[in-house]
Structure formats: C-alpha cells, structure tokens
Amino acid sequence: MPRFKVLSVTRGVVVGTVTMLAVACAQSPTAPTGSATVLTPALVAPANGALIANMKQPVTLTITNALVTDSTATVLYTFEVATDAAFTSKVQTPTASPGNGQTSVMLNPLTPGQNYFWHARATGGGTVGLFSATGTFTVGPALALSTPNPVAPQAGATPSGWPTLTVTNSIRTGPVAQLSYRFDVSTTSTFASTILSATVSEGPNGQTSFTPPFSTPLPAGTLLFWRVTAVDAQDGITSAASTTLSFTPQALTRQAFLAVTEGQTLWPGIQPPGTNGHATLGDGWDVRSVTSFNGVTFLSPPLEILQEFDLIDRGMDPQAAIDWMHANGYFNDGVWSPSNSVVGYPFEYIFLNNDTGAWDLVVRVGG
Q1: 122 with 129: CB under 8 angstroms?
Q2: The dihedral of CA 348, 352, 353, 358: what is its sign?
Q3: First-residue to last-residue Cα distance in the chain
Q4: Residues 19, 39: one domain?
Q5: What is d(CA 44, CA 181) in angstroms, rounded to the nearest whole number?
Q6: Overall number of domains in the chain
Q7: 148 and 135 in one domain?
C-alpha cells in the first residue's frame, strides 16, 4: 500500500511530520494535483437517517471542515444532494466558503415524501478532495390542516354562564396524526391576551367541543372573543386560526345552574336567541331522583324541560320553543296545550300558575 508524508500544521507553522496510509475509500485523502493535500470533511447534520417534517424545511446541511495543508489556499466546499445513492439524480449542488470549524448550507425546499442522499467535498490549493461518506435523510410527506369552522356560539350570542364552544373538525391533507384543538377566549379581538385557553382531543362525528369548567370565573356582561386552532403536535404543524366570533355571557340562571348540578350543559350546541328575564320558576324545580307512575326512575328536571323553560324565559311562547329546539338539533317531546297553559312530557309537565304567574313543575300521576 503506498505511503506519503503530510505536514502537520498548527497556525501555519510546521511542527513535524506524520506518515499516513492512503486508503481507497471515501474518507481517504487524495493525492494533490495542486499545491495542497485535502482531506475529506465529516458529516454533522442532519443525523444519518433523520426524518425531517416537511413543515421544518428548509433543510440545513452541516459538515466538519476538512484539513487542507496549505493554510493560504482558498477553500470551497461542494455539497451534492440526490435521490439515489449513486448520485446520478442530483437535485441540488450548493457550494459554500468554510465557516469556523464547520460549514453549513441551507437547501432550497425539497420535494416532500422523498428519501435523499448527500455528501460533501473540499477544494483548495488546486486540489479537489474526495467526497465524504454518504448520509441520508427523509423529508416527510406534505401535510396540511384546513381551518376549523366555528359552529357555536355564533356572533352576538348571550348564553347563560359559559357556553359550549364547538367547531367543525379540520380537514387533513396527507397522513396527519391525531389532532387536538386549542380553544382561546379573550376580551380583545386581537387576542393580545387570553382569559381562557384549553386544548382538547378531536371529537367524533366531525365536530369538537369544549365547555369551560363551572369553576372558571365568568366575566358576566363582558363581550368575549373566541377562536380555535387545529394542532398536529406529532408533526409540529397547526392550522390557521378559525374565524373570530364573539359572545356576551350572562350570569348563570337558575335553569342553567340546575343543568350544571346534573352534570350537563344547558345549551351544548347552537345557542338560543334572546335574553333571559321573561318568566319565573315556581314550585318543583329541584334536582331529585323521581319514580314515575309506571315505575321508571329518572332524574328531575330533565334537560329538555330546563331548555323549554329557558326559551320561555327568553321570550318565546311554549310552542315556538318546541319548534326552535326541533329546528336546531335539540330533543323535545313536549306537547303544548294553550287552553290549559300546560306543556306535557312523558313523566312530568310544566304549567303556568295563574295565581303566582310562575311556571311550576309537576310529576304526572297517571298515563
């Protein structure tokens, strides 16, 4: 095997000689054709076999500088990036002057969903060095998330207490991982600061909802703004924020408090129009377990009856309240009897007590 001598240079001063073996491989020095001997650089980043998310482009390649024995020589590094190990299909060949101990180049955006091979070599003093060992990396597939669409509460809503915030789920492009949704609520439309921020897992049936805990302080009577962002934490991408909508929460009504006591939200979806204060709760409106006339045990008052009264309290007549619930995706099997001022349900009924002007809740005693 041939031998040759390389001058060991420190700060441009010859301090001795060492004998090196010339090895026929990519990491070997090359016999100079000019005034210098040029060794091969070492790959630093990205790590060999790295998976780089498409959203993390552009990719930066970094090497450790090669030894060039002529300290006065002008050195240039050539990088090659290809889609095959033989480098017959090069996609980029950037060059760079040496940095301090390491040299880096930033690539132009590469085609996503593709494996890439790269290496680098130094040229100095008329000598073209050998290419380094080959490294590989993969640019992940193109991923995108559409903007979630707010469903409820719509602009101008005046819910009793905190409403349930609901959006349609984001549409994915590419193999997106499990999504979550960040709900932000602010007193300003610019969201310079938030009074509430929560991230929840994606919901089923094309929608995701978040109901602030009952313990969350409620700024009753304050105009609030809300928006939602879809998040793919695994791939490090987010959607654009949804359209910003506003609502003005009102102090918790008695019917809303009863719903919370039962572990439910009074209006989990579309928020009803109007403001409360048009009707009064009378007797029988206490949370309790009741056994009906035919032996069925249920929790009173049922949510649909609380919702019915809330709509009456917002100024609707009983039949209009039933119709509004049907039209907006809420269950209500009540029957309004105007002549008796009664809304009948399977096991209970509510009626307008003419003596007190309040709506009483009564358990039925027969079929």
Answers
A1: yes
A2: positive
A3: 106
A4: yes
A5: 37
A6: 3
A7: no
Residue 41 burial (10 A CB sphere; 0-12, 13-18, 19+) = buried
**Angle subtended by helix axes 303-313 and 254-261, to nearest 10:** 160
Show the domain range for 163: 144-247
Question: Which residues lie below 8 Å from residue 146, measured CB to CB, with a gap of 6+?
Answer: 170, 171, 172, 173, 230, 239
Closest CA to 79 of 22, 135, 31, 25: 135
Q: What is the DSSP string of 208-223?
A: EEE---TTS---TT--
Q: Does pTM top 0.70 for this prediction?
A: no
The pLDDT profile of the chain, 367 residues, written as one tens digit per residue, is 333 333 333 333 333 333 333 333 344 444 446 678 999 999 999 999 999 988 788 999 999 999 998 888 899 999 999 999 999 999 999 999 999 999 999 999 999 989 999 999 999 988 999 999 999 999 988 888 999 999 999 998 888 889 999 999 999 888 777 899 999 999 999 999 999 999 999 999 999 999 998 889 999 999 999 999 999 887 778 899 999 999 999 999 999 999 999 999 899 888 898 889 999 999 999 999 999 888 899 999 999 999 999 999 999 999 999 999 999 999 999 999 999 999 999 999 999 999 999 999 999 887 6
Q: What are phi and psi of 322, to 5 degrees?
A: -60, -45
CATH number, domain with residue 229: 2.60.40.10
Name the residue among 294, 295, 279 with its Cα closest to residue 361.
Answer: 279
- 179 and 128 within one domain: no
Coil, helix or strand at residue 283: coil
Structure tokens of 119?
A: 């290496």
Domain ends where: 247, 264, 292?
247
